[in-house]
Design brief:
By secondary structure, the chain is an alpha/beta fold. Helices cover about 45% and strands about 10% of the residues. The structure holds thiamine diphosphate. Thiamine diphosphate binds near residues 162, 164 and 194.
Length: about 350
């Protein structure tokens, strides 16, 4: 069985890139990742209760990509993503209550109860939309970048994709178009090596994904996807290029999902991936890595960590209670948001 190994620098990489960053910034990144992790753990814990009327795709293990990327963005910048939405939505500042209402099919859900987990949107936060169709968000985001360019808006667009998204023809078309027009867009590919249960090696020739992207003649970067600072740095550079009118960037971030492709729990026992592989990546859990760095350097105290955990726990409890107490849609809601000529 193929085994996808972690090839990054681990804690050394965090220590190297942390130079020059203030403790408050680093603790903020840690808090954002932890918040996403705890929210998803609670979603996972409650999923079997069947109150959430939606498929789910957890980002547990992949939090550093969303948080590192969004930390380099402004509210006015737009983020799109594929079906694995929770990390990008929350990191971009999407409203947690509206997200949980959406997942519980409540009238006040962020997509009006029409979409569920795979269709999160928060226009105030710049979370512009997500698509359940693999590759679906890529041309939409490219179009948004074209619009921003044509309207002379100071806006960068990011689209989060998985590795399988690079196998969709429309992704190639979008990279080509973005490079041609020098669009202000960042393609952030979270390469977790699997498309549902198919490993990369059964789907693509043995080449690195960012090298494939480079053939479209745009700058590419490889960022350690478990190192939130590496993703932050790569995104910052891409944002600077985009704002300067220098066009798009493709970032590949190798990551690992600790859970099943969809639903709650892990599915490694199905035999499509080696359990030792997951264990190896769990040793470089993005949250643990940063936590280790912060505690070793005395940048976070155990009392602060306890307070952060308590704040997150209270926020999650309140948001779930809010969602469960929210009204279901009524028949008349069917006609809202419907456009017809
Ligand atoms: C066009 C299309 N083909 C197939 C699917 C079924 N499908 C849903 S998620 C998925 C895997 C996507 O893998 P990847 O893009 O690597 O993202 P990941 O799930 O690993 O985050 C597939 C094949 C789909 N939703 N859309």
């Amino acid at each position: 069985m193929i085994r996808y190994c972690y090839k990054g620098e681990g804690l050394d990489g965090i220590a190297r890139l942390a130079q020059g960053h203030e403790a408050a910034f680093l603790v903020g990144l840690y808090r954002s990742m932890l918040r996403i992790r705890r929210i998803e753990e609670e979603i996972e814990r409650r999923y079997h209760e069947n109150q959430m009327k939606t498929p789910i795709h957890l980002v547990i293990g992949q939090e550093a990509t969303s948080v590192g990327c969004c930390a380099a963005l402004r509210t006015a910048d737009l983020v799109y993503s594929s079906h694995r939405t929770h990390g990008a939505y929350l990191a971009k500042g999407g409203d947690l209550k509206a997200m949980l209402c959406e997942m519980h099919c409540r009238a006040n859900g962020c997509a009006g109860s029409r979409g569920g987990s795979m269709h999160l949107i928060d226009k105030v936060a710049g979370m512009a939309g997500t698509s359940a169709v693999v590759g679906g968000a890529v041309p939409i985001a490219t179009g948004a970048a074209l619009a921003a360019q044509m309207k002379h808006e100071d806006r960068v667009v990011v689209v989060f994709t998985g590795d399988a998204t690079t196998e969709e023809g429309v992704t190639s078309e979008s990279l080509n178009f973005a490079a041609l027009k020098r669009l202000p867009i960042i393609f952030l590919c979270e390469n977790n090596f699997y498309s549902v249960q198919s490993p990369l090696a059964t789907r693509q020739p043995p080449r690195e994904i960012h090298r494939w992207a480079a053939a479209h003649d745009l700058p590419v970067a490889l960022a350690d996807g478990v190192n939130v600072l590496a993703v932050f740095q790569a995104t910052q550079a891409a944002v600077a290029r985009a704002r300067a009118g220098e066009g798009p960037t493709f970032i590949e971030a190798p990551v690992y999902r600790f859970r099943a492709h969809g639903g709650a729990g892990d599915d490694s026992r199905m035999g499509y991936r080696d359990e030792a592989e997951r264990a190896e990546w769990e040793r470089v859990c993005p949250i643990k890595l940063l936590e280790t760095y912060l505690t070793q350097r005395g940048l976070i105290q155990s009392s602060t960590m306890a307070r952060v955990e308590a704040e997150i726990r209270d926020e999650i409890a309140e948001a779930f209670a809010f969602a469960l107490a929210s009204p279901n849609p009524v028949e008349a809601d069917l006609y809202r948001h419907v456009y017809a000529d």
